[in-house]
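Input structure tokens:
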């Protein structure tokens, strides 16, 4: 989908694709579009990822393609991983966008 390709390009441009490449996942494939609740739900899932040390897979994503090449996109199964910093990006209609940062303590 066009949005996936645009988001993948933004991730590569912002974070790069080297050794410090961030782990990426998405809950939207499981949750659908929950409209006004999306940001809160995604924030809660991000906190659980940090607390539990497990990154959930992106539902419906089976293998990297040209658009997602070079991005560490979790797919297939959850990945045990220590997460010191997690960013939850919420991009809404009409340019209502937010990023929340959560750190392990």
């Amino acid at each position: 989908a066009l949005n996936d390709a645009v988001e993948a390009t933004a991730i590569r441009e912002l974070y790069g694709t080297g050794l410090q490449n961030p782990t990426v996942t998405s809950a939207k494939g499981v949750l659908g579009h929950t409209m006004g609740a999306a940001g809160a739900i995604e924030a809660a899932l991000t906190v659980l990822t940090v607390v539990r040390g497990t990154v959930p897979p992106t539902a419906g994503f089976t293998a990297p393609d040209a658009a997602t090449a070079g991005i560490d996109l979790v797919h297939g199964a959850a990945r045990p991983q220590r997460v010191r910093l997690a960013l939850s990006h919420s991009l809404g209609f009409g340019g209502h966008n937010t990023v929340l940062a959560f750190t392990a303590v």
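The chain has a mean pLDDT of 88. The domain at 2-103 is CATH 3.40.47.10 (Peroxisomal Thiolase; Chain A, domain 1).
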